Each structure stands twice: as C-alpha cells, then as structure tokens.
Amino acid sequence: MGFWYLAIGIFVGLLVILDGYLLLKTKNNGRYSNLINVTTTIEFIWAIVSVITMFALEFSALQIMSPLLFASHNIFGWLYGFYIVANTPKEKIDLVKIVPSWYAVFGLSVGIVYTTLNIFLLLGLGT
C-alpha cells in the first residue's frame, strides 16, 4: 500500500478529529465555521483520493479498510447532510449550527479510528 496515502491519511485523520472537536466545542454557535469549512473541503478531496486509491492500488484484507473507511464515512456524511438540509427551513440553514452533537462525536470517533489505523499500517503492522 502507498506510503504517501497512509502518511497523508494520518494528517487527514487528525483534521477529522479536529473537525469533530470543533463542532462539539462550538455547541452549534458557528464560532469556528471558517476553519470547519477548510477541514471539510480537505476531507472532501481526500474522500475522492480514497475512492481512486481503492481501485489504483492492491491491498491486503486489512489495508483496504483505510480508504474504505474514509470513503464510507464521507458518503454517509453527505447523505446525512442532504437529509438535514432537506428537513431544515431554508432561513435557518447553517451546517455548523444544525449538525447534531451525536454526529460530531461520530465524526471524531471515525477520525480517531482512521488515524490509528493508518499509523498501524504505516508501521507495517497490518500486512
């Protein structure tokens, strides 16, 4: 599996953790919305990279979990985001303010698992 995918994946995983933490810390007041917009954009780009990586590289049974976990988490997030927006009055749409706390905890947890998995794989413990 690609060294650079895993190394950058650790950084992206830390951003996912930061994103979840900031969403929880703001208590939906939107205080960090610009930073959250940056982390979300990076996560979106990394989701595309993860999907491409799944088809471009060969993986062991454990290694495939890294790009699969990240892509799945993002696809679930997009679907849930569409659901939230569709069920929120248009004048109240501010994604930072309407994301429920449980979803921020879920994202934070995925970030921890993703970062740990990439460290584990980078150290060669998952071959």
Q: How would you sum up this structure, described in words?
A:
It is a single chain. The protein is mainly α and 127 residues long. 76% of the residues lie in helices and 0% in strands. Helix 1 (3-26) runs antiparallel to helix 5 (101-122). The longest helix is centred in the N-terminal third of the chain and has 24 residues, at 3-26. It is elongated.
Defining traits:
single chain, 127 residues, mainly alpha
What's the short version?
The chain is mainly α and 127 residues long.
Task: Give the SSE map.
Layout: H1 3-26, H2 33-56, H3 65-86, H4 95-98, H5 101-122
Helix pairs in contact: 1-2, 1-5, 2-3, 3-5
Average per-residue pLDDT, rounded, comes to 85
Describe the largest sheet: none
What is the chains' assembly state? single chain
Individual helix count: 5
Instruction: Spell out the helices and strands N to C.
Output: HHHHH
**Counted beta strands:** 0
Distance separating the two termini:
9 Å
Portion of residues in beta strands equals under 5%
Helix content: over 70%
- Uncertain runs are none
Shape verdict: elongated
Radius of gyration: 15 Å
Derived structural class: mainly alpha
